[in-house]
Specification:
single chain; alpha/beta; Quinone Oxidoreductase, Chain A, domain 1; Rossmann fold; seven-stranded mixed beta sheet; five-stranded parallel beta sheet; about 25% strand; binds NADP nicotinamide-adenine-dinucleotide phosphate; NADPH binding; oxidoreductase
């Protein structure tokens, strides 16, 4: 690809890190064609962090050499250089590692939107399916910060990480609804975040009796209509101010984004093969 030229209002970023997300693989396979049509050949990727290499006409407030976190809405971040509107980048706090900075947008804003949607109050118990993934690791920490008791649904391999972050681990498998109720201090689950799909919404509404208005799924789209639950995700918090807020929490040591593995840009296929196993803790990241 030729090096992009920043248009009016854009900056050119030399990418240092770009996280990968399961939705990108689904779009590539055509599985989300109705929502996000794909045409090929196509670039890929929304998450990015890097160094400003050029400033387009009309841009104020940034300089060449600034370290930034941002996002692309043109499936173009998995590259050495990407041009994006200047209002889609924010200063990277010095204490935030490149891998984390480059992973914050999709997973972070999705977690933020989902947690906000179920309106957690101190004393609530919220169960989170997919608690140890890219979205889940951020969401469980935001839910703990909101004062909720958080039940993190994941495999046993994640028990220690979840416990260390103030979350009660509950392993998926037979008898899950009973085990969730038993783990909840009040014996009741008040809200449910589904980051995995495959029947968790039904379990939340029909087995646990959670009010549909306090169930959010980011992946089981048919269940949104069937059960009247919420579908708040990335698009609902796709704002650079949210990215900046999350980056600030990371810089302050109040939010951890675990990086499972880092791949070179040339190893993009291996990175997605790993991601599609659906057992990543935190994020997989490409480093050009
Ligand atoms: N709508 C939106 O805006 C939006 C945005 C981002 C992502 N998404 C979607 O949300 C989902 C999660 O994304 P992500 O990036 O967090 O994925 P991810 O990082 O690949 O999630 C992996 C996690 O899923 C857990 N998991 C595996 N099997 C499970 C099961 N049976 N029950 C519960 N958890 C299980 C794994 O835990 P163990 O290793 O312990 O098994 C692992 O920690 C994806 O389907 C993605 O496409 C939607």
């Amino acid at each position: 690809m030729p090096r992009p030229v920043p248009a009016d209002g854009e900056v050119l970023v030399e990418v240092k890190a770009a996280g990968i997300n399961p939705g990108e693989a689904m779009i590539r396979r055509g599985a989300l064609h109705d929502r996000w049509p794909a045409t090929f050949p196509s670039g890929q990727g929304s998450d990015l962090a890097g160094v400003i290499a050029e400033i387009g006409p009309g841009v104020r407030g940034f300089n060449v050499g600034d370290e930034v976190i941002g996002f692309s809405e043109r499936r173009s971040s998995q590259a050495e250089y990407v041009a994006v509107p200047a209002d889609q980048v924010t200063a990277k706090p010095a204490g935030v590692p490149w891998e984390v900075a480059g992973s914050l947008f999709v997973a972070g804003t999705t977690a933020y939107a989902a947690v906000r949607a179920v309106q957690l109050r101190p004393g609530d118990t919220v169960a989170v399916a997919g608690a140890a993934g890219g979205v889940g690791t951020v969401a469980v920490q935001l839910a703990v910060r909101a004062g909720a008791t958080v039940l993190g649904i994941a495999g046993p391999v994640n028990d220690d990480w979840l416990t260390a972050h103030g979350v009660i681990p509950v392993n998926y498998g037979d008898g899950l609804a009973d085990r969730l109720r038993a783990a909840a201090p009040s014996g009741r689950v008040d809200a449910f975040l589904d980051f995995f799909g495959g029947g968790y919404v039904q379990l939340a509404v029909e087995e646990l009796g959670v009010e549909p208005g306090r169930v959010d799924t980011i992946i089981d789209f048919p269940a949104i209509e069937r059960f009247g639950v919420l579908g708040a995700g990335n698009a609902d918090a796709s704002d650079i101010a949210v990215v900046a807020e999350l980056a600030g929490l990371v810089a302050d040591g109040a939010l951890e984004v675990p990086i499972a593995r880092v791949f070179g840009l040339d190893d993009v296929r291996a990175a997605y093969t790993e991601l599609e196993k659906r057992h990543t803790r935190g994020k997989l990241v490409l480093r050009p």
